[in-house]
Amino acid sequence: MSDLVNATALATSVLFSVERLSVAFRRRRQAPFVAVREATFTIHEDETVALVGESGSGKSVTALAMMGLLPKYSAEIADDSRILYRERDLLRCSDEERRRLRGADMAMIFQEPMTSLNPVFTIGTQIAEVLRLHKGMSASAAQARCIELLDEVGLPEPRRALARYPSQLSGGQQQRAMIAMALACTPRLLIADEPTTALDVTVQKQIVELLKTLKTRHRMSILFISHDLALVGELADRIIVMRHGEIREAGETVRIFSSPRDRYTQALLQCRPRLDDVPSRLPTIDDFMVEAQPLFPLPLCGGGCLEGAGEGESPSPLSKGGVGEADGGLPSATGEKNKTLLLEVSNLKKSFFKREGSWRRHEIPAVKNASFTLRRGETLGIVGESGCGKTTLGLTLLRLHQATGGTVRFDGQEVLALSEEAFMPYRRRMQIVFQNPYASLNPRFTVGQSLLEPILLHRMAADRQTATALAFDWLHRVGLDRDAFDKYPHEFSGGQRQRIALARALTVEPELLICDEPVSALDVSVQAQILNLLKDLQAQLGVSYLFISHDLAVVRYLCDAVMVMRDGEVVEINDVDSLYRNPQSAYTRQLLAAVPRVRYQGSEIRDQRSGIRT
Amino acid sequence: MAAMAKAFHFPMSATVAVNRGNGFWSLAWQRFRDDRVGVVSLVIVAAFFVVVFLSALGVIASGWNEEVAIPDAPPDLWGLLKPAPPMAMESAAQRAAQRMGKEPSLEPLLPSAVMDPLAETLARLRGESDVLPESRVVDPLAETLRTLGAGDELLTTTIEKRMSLPFGGDRWGRDVLTKTIKGSQTSIIVGLTAALLATFLGTLLGALAGYYGHRTDDALNWFYSVFNAIPYLLLILAVAAVLQQRGVVTVILILGLTGWTGVFRLVRAEYIKHRGREYVRAAHAFGVPNRRILFFHILPNVSHVVLVNVSILAVGFIKAEVILSFLGFGVAVDEVSWGSMLNDAHRELILGRWWELLAAGGAMALLVTAFSLLTDAMRDALDPKIRVAS
Question: A428: nearest CA in chain B?
Answer without folding.
Answer: B286
